[in-house]
Amino acid sequence: MWLGVLFVTTVALHQMSPEFEQHFLRQRSTNIHELSRNPVRVLVASALWIDSGRWLPYILLYTVFHAPVERWLGTARWLAVCALAHVLATLISEGALLKAIRDGMAPHSAVNTLDVGVSYALAGVIAVLTYRIAAPWRYAYLLAVLVVFALPLTEGSTFTDLGHFVSALIGLACYPLTRGRGKAWNPKETLAAPRG
Questions:
Q1: DSSP 8-state secondary structure symbol assigned to residue 181
Q2: Distance CA 34, CA 18 (A)
Q3: Which of 16, 68, 150, 176 could form an S-S bond across to 21 if both were Cys, CB 3.0 to 4.6 Å?
Q4: Would the pLDDT of 193 be above 80?
Q5: Which residue windows are transmembrane per the record (predicted)?
Q6: Residues 6+ apart with CB under 8 A from 49
């Protein structure tokens, strides 16, 4: 359903002029200005829009990551991971940006930075999927997740890079939600099944 909502909102964005689109998204952005005015509204609204205007890549991402995690954890636990990653990573990354502004390391205009999208929830879901995979494959997957989300922090990081990394850590911290959710998936057993 979330992917369907993103399709509708993406189509709506394509009908807007570029100037109105920026104004419209900024009012739904989890930037410092909007968070200080109406945090609940923008935390919900920002998860319903894609800033890039490209919906098709999300079909693949939702199929590969969100769908298996929702099937494995159940809708309530999956949503909990999404909400925790989206909300906490937003608050932490915007808090870091606010500190950078106060310390003179970022311009004051950054309080109105455009920040909408579903990538923090996606990063949390990608990370929690670590616990669905059996060892030793789990460790290779975990390493890949950490490299993908930590690498941007080493190369002129932005508050969004920090948010993605924090989201991944939050997803890993959701381990208690994965307990009792069935046997871990072993890629070796899957590959051997057609032959056996």
A1: S
A2: 20
A3: 16
A4: no
A5: 77-97, 117-134, 139-156
A6: 6, 9, 10, 13, 25, 28, 116, 117
Cβ neighbour number for residue 192 with a 10 Å cutoff: 10
Residues 147, 157: Cα–Cα separation, whole Å = 14
The closest alpha carbon to 189, from 152, 137, 142, belongs to 137
Q: How far is CA 28 from the centre of its chain?
A: 16
Res. 149: pLDDT tops 60: yes
Q: Report the candidate in 1, 177, 166, 178 with the shortest Cα–Cα distance to residue 85.
A: 166
Enter the DSSP assignment of 118: S
CA distances from 190 to 13, 16, 129, 187 (A): 41, 47, 17, 5
* Distance from C-alpha of 93 to C-alpha of 31, rounded to nearest angstrom: 10
Cα gap 187→196, rounded to integer Å: 14
